[in-house]
Amino acid sequence: MRLKMPFPAPPDFASASTVQMTSQHLPQVLNVEQSAYSHPWTQGNFVDSIASGYHMPVWFQGEHLLGYLVAMRGADELHLLNITVAPGFQRRGWGGHMLRTLIDWSRERGVHAIWLEVRASNRAGMALYQAHGFDLQGERKNYYPVSSNQREDAVVMGLQW
Ligand SMILES: CC(C)(COP(=O)(O)OP(=O)(O)OC[C@H]1O[C@@H](n2cnc3c(N)ncnc32)[C@H](O)[C@@H]1OP(=O)(O)O)[C@@H](O)C(=O)NCCC(=O)NCCS
User: Fold this and answer.
1) Ligand 1, atom 43: nearest CA belongs to which residue?
2) For residue 135, which of 36, 96, 113, 128 sits 20 to 30 Å off, Cα-Cα?
3) Does any domain span residue 53?
4) How far is the CA of 145 from the centre of ligand 1 (A)?
5) Is 137 helix (H, G, I), strand (E, B) or coil?
6) Beta bridge partners of 70
7) Which of 68, 117, 143, 144 is catalytic?
8) Residue 91 alpha carbon, nearest atom of ligand 1
9) Into how many domains does the chain fold?
10) What residues does 65 pair with on adjacent strands?
């Protein structure tokens, strides 16, 4: 008789493949983006990021898009602009895996700090970053739209080494 597992099996990170995002991925990326955010990036935001040469790995498991991130590299700093795990794959460790991969990628290229903004209400995002050593660095008032007449603060977080 097989024992029932109390929790889902941990993800098999080696089973995922990674490619740099191109315009070919945009239909799938936009589908995930629109299901993951109240205020998703537009197609234009992704097109501009690709044209700017940003670091934009996309993770797949077979046909399924697991997640992606968008990072803008400066001389020795990196700004994480977007990190998203497809809703059906969230809370299984993929976000942490993607973030660790980005930290390793940055270290290998002489980057010494990663900065990001996160909505003050985004507890999952903040918990993910804190679990990977990011600290609160400050806030930007009324940074994100909420509705036509309401905005929300951003929390600035950073990881330096
Ligand atoms: C934030 C996000 C990227 C996290 O990815 P994920 O694959 O779900 O995260 P993981 O399973 O790797 O979780 C890593 C840690 O993050 C924290 N975390 C993740 N989701 C959480 C949630 N819903 N509530 C509280 N903590 C959470 C936990 O500390 C977790 O560790 P644990 O599971 O051992 O407790 C994902 O939820 C997401 O894409 N959300 C929508 C888009 C978004 O908000 N992106 C960030 C914008 S700044």
Assistant:
1) 84
2) 36
3) yes
4) 21
5) strand
6) 82
7) 117
8) 11
9) 1
10) 60
From residue 17, alpha-carbon distances to 13, 24, 58, 86 in Å are 9, 16, 8, 15
The one catalytic residue among 54, 68, 129, 144: 129
Return the structure tokens found at 128.
């993910």
Catalytic status, residue 117: yes
Q: Whose CA is nearest to atom 26 of ligand 1?
A: 124
The residue segments making up the domain with residue 47 are 16-160
For ligand 1, what atom is nearest to the CA of residue 82? Answer: 47
- Residue 9 neighbours by CB distance under 10 Å: 7
Any residues with Cβ below 6 Å from ligand 1, and which? 36-37, 83-85, 90-96, 118, 122-125, 127-128, 131
Domain membership flag for residue 6: no
For 51-91, how does the pLDDT look when each residue is reduced to its tens digit (9 = 90+)? 999 999 999 999 999 999 999 999 899 999 999 999 999 99
- Overall pTM > 0.90: yes
> Whole-angstrom Cα distance, residue 73 to residue 81?
10
- Cβ within 8 Å of residue 54, ≥6 positions away: 70, 71, 72, 73, 81
